[in-house]
From TrEMBL:
<feature type="binding site">
    <location>
        <begin position="51"/>
        <end position="52"/>
    </location>
    <ligand>
        <name>3-methyl-2-oxobutanoate</name>
    </ligand>
</feature>
<keyword id="KW-0808">Transferase</keyword>
<comment type="function">
    <text>Catalyzes the reversible reaction in which hydroxymethyl group from 5,10-methylenetetrahydrofolate is transferred onto alpha-ketoisovalerate to form ketopantoate.</text>
</comment>
<dbReference type="InterPro" id="IPR003700">
    <property type="entry name" value="Pantoate_hydroxy_MeTrfase"/>
</dbReference>
<feature type="binding site">
    <location>
        <position position="120"/>
    </location>
    <ligand>
        <name>3-methyl-2-oxobutanoate</name>
    </ligand>
</feature>
<keyword id="KW-0479">Metal-binding</keyword>
<dbReference type="GO" id="GO:0000287">
    <property type="term" value="F:magnesium ion binding"/>
</dbReference>
<dbReference type="InterPro" id="IPR040442">
    <property type="entry name" value="Pyrv_kinase-like_dom_sf"/>
</dbReference>
<protein>
    <recommendedName>
        <fullName>3-methyl-2-oxobutanoate hydroxymethyltransferase</fullName>
        <ecNumber>2.1.2.11</ecNumber>
    </recommendedName>
</protein>
<keyword id="KW-0460">Magnesium</keyword>
<feature type="binding site">
    <location>
        <position position="122"/>
    </location>
    <ligand>
        <name>Mg(2+)</name>
    </ligand>
</feature>
<dbReference type="GO" id="GO:0008168">
    <property type="term" value="F:methyltransferase activity"/>
</dbReference>
<feature type="binding site">
    <location>
        <position position="90"/>
    </location>
    <ligand>
        <name>Mg(2+)</name>
    </ligand>
</feature>
<feature type="binding site">
    <location>
        <position position="51"/>
    </location>
    <ligand>
        <name>Mg(2+)</name>
    </ligand>
</feature>
<comment type="pathway">
    <text>Cofactor biosynthesis; (R)-pantothenate biosynthesis; (R)-pantoate from 3-methyl-2-oxobutanoate: step 1/2.</text>
</comment>
<dbReference type="Pfam" id="PF02548">
    <property type="entry name" value="Pantoate_transf"/>
</dbReference>
<keyword id="KW-0963">Cytoplasm</keyword>
Length: 273
């Protein structure tokens, strides 16, 4: 790719072109300005302000209590840190399920107040009319099928979906319904790799996998999992690229002990009168 293209703003069209060219799409979650900036500089095509913010930032057990105002706040911070990456914001639980009208109004807030460039919502065929209403208003929608964490109580835990012929067929039909409704891309979460491959082949829009195998058009991970900052659970699909948690705790211990022993501050850390 040319230098100009490398630096150009990523759009939904750019992602479609990447699928057409067989180039993989790298997506990562982000929740604040500092880390969004680092991920953007590292070349991530998409920054997802995930409702996983409820788990890794707020310390909640699942994503259900996350509010629209919280998502707007985090999206604003990520948008400020992102020069090139496409900023996608998750629609939180109960901000899009009641009606397409409610969904459109709330998607509009994520764009107008949060500065999101697209929104993501969970669900397949049942969400087709909702996706269509948002897309018609000019807001790009990313779908999300398979393991949908906002349905954790209905699923009975964070369990792999689409195992067996009938369950696989249901996920495929959901994926096709999301595409037909006008979504520009689709997250495939927690499904067998073979099903991820099948859906990716059948869809014209890019698929972005998390625990959906190697054949998806792109991959997404939760930033804290990748960095080794979150270890309350480590799903099989996570790869740790660093041990930032250990590094941070070591620095904190050193600072704490230097305060106790009066090794910090030194004269160079002090102002002269
Ligand atoms: N930090 C973090 N990482 C995530 O990937 C993530 C979140 N939070 N919050 C929202 C959802 C919840 N997710 C999860 C959480 C746990 C498993 C998990 O434990 N999976 C088991 C398999 C479970 C089964 O099928 O029985 C695994 O070993 O992968 C999967 C997805 C993915 N998302
Ligand atoms: C795991 C990704 C796809 C997500 O929805 C989130 O971070 O909330
Ligand atoms: Mg989410």
């Amino acid at each position: 790719m040319s230098k100009v293209l490398e630096l150009s703003k990523i759009t939904t069209t750019a992602l479609a072109n990447l699928k057409a060219e067989g180039e993989k799409i790298a997506m990562l979650t982000a929740y604040d300005y500092t880390f969004a900036r680092l991920a953007d500089q590292a070349g991530m095509e998409v920054l997802l302000v995930g409702d996983s913010v409820g788990m890794v930032f707020s310390g909640l057990e699942n994503t259900l209590p996350v509010t629209l105002d919280q998502m707007i706040y985090h999206t604003q911070a990520v948008a400020r840190g992102s020069k090139r990456a496409l900023v996608v914001a998750d629609m939180p639980f109960m901000t899009y399920q009641v009606s397409p009208q409610q969904a459109l109004q709330n998607a509009g807030r994520l764009v107008q107040e949060g500065r999101a460039e697209a929104v993501k919502l969970e669900g397949g065929a049942a969400m087709a009319a909702t996706i269509s209403a948002i897309v018609t208003a000019g807001i790009p929608v990313m779908g999300h099928v398979g393991l949908t964490p906002q349905s954790v109580h209905a699923i009975g835990g964070f369990r792999v979906q689409g195992k067996g012929h009938d369950a696989a067929q249901a996920v495929l039909e959901d994926a096709l319904a999301v595409q037909d409704a006008g979504a520009f891309a689709l997250v495939l979460e927690g499904i067998p790799a073979s099903l991820g491959q099948q859906i990716t082949q059948q869809l014209t829009i890019p698929t972005i996998g998390i625990g959906a195998g190697a054949d998806c058009d792109g991959q997404v991970l939760v930033m804290h999992d990748l960095l080794g900052l979150f270890d309350e659970f480590t799903p099989k699909f996570v790869k740790r690229y660093a041990s930032v948690g250990e590094t941070v705790e070591k620095a904190f211990r050193e600072y704490q002990s230097e305060v106790k022993s009066s090794c910090f501050p030194q004269p160079q850390n002090c102002f002269k009168g």
